[in-house]
Amino acid sequence: MTGALLFDLDGTLIDSRRSIALACNHALVRSGRAELPEDTIAGFVGDGARLLLARAAGLPATGTGELDVLLADFVRFYAAHPIDGTTWMPGAEGALAALGKGGWKLGLVTNKARAITLPILGALGVADRFAVVVAGGDGPLKPDPAPILAATRALGVAPVHTWVVGDAVQDVRAGKAAACHTVAVLGGFQTEARLRAEAPDLVLGSLAELAGALAGATAAPRSPA
Fold first, then answer.
1. S-S: 38 plus which of 21, 86, 173, 183, CB 3.0-4.6 Å?
2. Which CATH number fits domain 17-80: 3.40.50, 3.40.630, 3.30.390, 1.10.150?
3. Where in the chain is the domain with CATH 3.40.50.1000?
4. pLDDT value at position 69?
């Protein structure tokens, strides 16, 4: 068997900076706060919507009440406008098509809420590309390995035959903790220096390089870090 590929969503498969900023600023304005620049909001991405909004609004991440209202407004707006301002990351759409035909089992593991993730996949027309989707709210978030391991169990593929593909340190750390191979893709929400510091098995300039980089991975799989 070839194995499994578990993709992150934001910054890996899709460039969602604009969409996230639109939803975040919608929630902020409804709460009486000022909008934030898109680049500022992008710096808050990676640990789920609740933490993103807590950072954007200057609220404690463990708080409820006001933060719950912000989160509800964010999710409601985003789910209604799932791909406004969103585009594919370079090489992503082609990589999904090629790797799916190549015998790989494809899964999606994202810290983005399921209520937003599924509308995005539907709007992009790729919901049927993934045999499993593990999203925010299903359990612990990356960098906890739990969502990665949940996906490998659902796919029936051992971690040693699984590659975790993402643009952030959360992806690399979760993959390593789950004893999977890891692929860091540049150009997303985090810098090359931060990603390389995590020592992923592969570092790619874009997903267009993924199929070639994984050629022969079944015959000679890398040992987990």
1. 21
2. 1.10.150
3. 4-15+87-214
4. 96
Give the three-class secondary structure for 166. Answer: strand
How far apart are alpha carbons 17 and 26 in whole angstroms?
14
List, as one string, the DSSP characters of 21-55.
HHHHHHHHHHTTPPP--HHHHHTTTTS-HHHHHHH
pLDDT tens per residue across span 72-83: 999 999 999 999
β partners of residue 202:
183
Q: Give the CA angle between residues 68, 70, 71 to the nearest 5°.
A: 65
**CATH of 4-15+87-214 given 2.60.40.10, 1.10.287.370, 3.40.50.1000, 3.10.300.10:** 3.40.50.1000
Alpha-carbon distance values, 91 to 84, 168, 193 (Å): 20, 18, 22
Q: Does the pLDDT at position 33 exceed 90? A: yes
Catalytic residue numbers read: 8
Average pLDDT (112-137) is 96
